[in-house]
């Protein structure tokens, strides 16, 4: 057997001297924890999205949990969410004391089906949690309309979707509260990190408070206080604080964001051109006016595929190409089946069984992509 000479990773963050310098500056400043950099990063993301407030956290999962806590979710309250998402969306609801009520997704966009969401509303429903899967906004306007009609909150899981838009309006400026992830597989990274954005001052204030043990005065406030300042803890909060080291990386990444998205979209368009007309796969769909950031580019094997997913991924791996399954269907995960019983959601199940995430990252060369396209093409014919 020949040694494989071409290696194509699934993804690769774009980090340069700007990020290195930003981290060094923080390390040398003597102030490492949540401080001026976090505040600047929050301002930057809020301004970018067009939201009034932003609260940085340790991850998108903790941002979601904080958002639900800030909305005063009560034990037993139901939150409607799509099944075809990372388990974090559901775990955040569970840890906030709620019950995830999973519904199916649209066949083309793979995002929550608003009609299915509406049909799942009952007297225990408190919120809807749409997910912008793979960087494409869910049908957020439809979700917000339904929520308004039924007096529900909307907590959007936009983990992969910073920069996504609907008719020019940014994700982050559409739902009541929106949460982003800065994990290295996302559009921009802070290593680990997350942020919630909202126009509600009350919600942002509550999230800020609970992010840091509900302390009556922050580390920074105590540091700058002229007199000794002894803080109090009137409630049991969390430590979901982002550090200034992480925020400094995030600030440098924000300078790159639009270029990163543009390159991702270019690569996605090349995959579309290669695979859109191939009967054995489905390519990502969209609604008119939606701008996809392609945090991941997935194909879905159809019944016409000559190869099953496991074998396809294995063959690509042997040829130096890293792939991943697109995502799970949360309702089929063991914890869910054990706690809530088995439900059937055909679209989510089809996608969970048949999606393959192909390599896509801004530094991917056209040669690397052609190699991937050729190898995938061989499998599908
Ligand atoms: C849809 C979705 N929600 C939430 C998360 C969790 O993000 P984080 O790792 O920042 O907690 C992810 C991460 O993969 C995700 O894809």
Largest sheet: 7 strands, mixed
The CATH level-2 architecture of the largest domain is identified as 3-Layer(aba) Sandwich
Task: Name the beta content range.
Answer: 5-15%
CA radius of gyration is: 21 Å
Number of domains: 2
Strands in their spatial order, largest beta sheet: 1-9-8-5-4-2-3
- What number is the mean pLDDT? 96
Concise overview:
This protein has 381 residues and is an alpha/beta fold. It has helices at 17-29, 36-49, 60-70, 87-95, 114-119, 140-149, 201-211, 219-224, 244-275, 309-318, 334-340, 346-354, 366-380; strands spanning 53-57, 78-82, 99-103, 125-128, 153-157, 165-166, 169-170, 177-181, 194-198, 281-282, 290-291, 297-301, 324-325, 355-358. 40% of the residues lie in helices and 14% in strands.
Structure keywords:
alpha/beta; 40% helix; Aspartate Aminotransferase, domain 1; 381 residues; 2 domains; single chain; seven-stranded mixed β-sheet; Aspartate Aminotransferase, domain 2; 14 strands; binds pyridoxal-5'-phosphate; 14% strand; 13 helices; four-stranded antiparallel β-sheet
Structure description:
It is a single chain. This protein is an alpha/beta fold and 381 residues long. The protein folds into two domains: 239 residues, Type I PLP-dependent aspartate aminotransferase-like (Major domain) (Aspartate Aminotransferase, domain 2); 124 residues, Aspartate Aminotransferase, domain 1 (Alpha-Beta Complex), CATH 3.90.1150. The chain contains 13 helices and 14 strands. The strands form three sheets. It has a seven-stranded mixed beta sheet, sandwiched between helices. A four-stranded antiparallel beta sheet has the order 10-12-14-13. It has a three-stranded antiparallel beta sheet with strand order 7-6-11, with no helix packed on it. A hairpin with a 2-residue loop joins strand 6 and strand 7. Helix 1 packs antiparallel against helix 9 and helix 2 runs parallel beside helix 9. The mean pLDDT is 96. Bound molecules: pyridoxal-5'-phosphate (PLP). The site of pyridoxal-5'-phosphate has 14 residues, from helix 3 and helix 4.
């Amino acid at each position: 057997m020949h040694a494989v000479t071409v290696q194509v990773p699934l993804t690769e963050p774009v980090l340069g001297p700007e990020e290195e310098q930003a981290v060094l500056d923080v390390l040398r400043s003597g102030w490492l924890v949540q401080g001026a950099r976090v505040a600047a990063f929050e301002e930057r993301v809020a301004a970018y999205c067009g939201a009034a407030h932003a609260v940085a956290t340790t991850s998108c999962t903790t941002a979601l949990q904080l958002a639900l806590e800030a909305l005063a979710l009560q034990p037993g309250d139901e939150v409607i969410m799509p099944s075809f998402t990372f388990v974090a969306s559901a775990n955040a609801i569970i840890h906030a004391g709620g019950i995830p009520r999973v519904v199916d997704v649209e066949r083309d966009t793979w995002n929550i089906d608003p009609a299915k969401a509406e049909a799942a509303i009952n007297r225990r429903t408190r919120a809807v949690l749409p997910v912008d899967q793979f960087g494409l906004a869910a049908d957020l306007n439809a979700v917000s309309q339904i929520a308004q009609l039924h007096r529900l909150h909307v907590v959007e899981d936009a983990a992969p979707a910073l920069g996504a838009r609907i008719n020019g309006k940014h994700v982050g400026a559409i739902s009541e509260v929106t949460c982003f992830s800065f994990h290295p597989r996302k559009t921009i990274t802070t290593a680990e990190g997350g942020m919630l954005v909202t126009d509600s001052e009350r919600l942002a204030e509550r999230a800020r408070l609970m992010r840091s043990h509900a302390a009556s005065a922050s580390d920074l406030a105590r540091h700058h206080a002229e007199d000794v300042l002894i803080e109090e803890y009137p409630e049991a909060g969390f430590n979901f604080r982002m550090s200034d080291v992480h925020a400094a990386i995030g600030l440098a990444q924000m300078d790159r964001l639009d270029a990163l998205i543009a390159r991702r979209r270019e690569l996605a368009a090349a995959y579309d051109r290669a695979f859109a007309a191939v009967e054995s796969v489905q390519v990502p769909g969209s609604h008119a006016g939606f701008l996809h950031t392609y945090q991941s580019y997935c194909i879905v094997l159809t019944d016409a595929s000559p190869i099953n997913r496991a074998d396809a991924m294995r063959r690509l791996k042997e040829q130096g190409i890293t792939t991943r399954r697109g995502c799970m269907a949360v309702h089929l995960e063991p914890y869910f089946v054990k706690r809530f019983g088995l439900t059937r959601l055909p679209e989510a199940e089809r996608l969970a069984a048949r999606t393959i995430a192909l390599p896509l990252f801004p530094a991917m060369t056209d040669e690397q992509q052609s190699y991937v396209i050729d190898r995938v093409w061989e499998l599908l014919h």
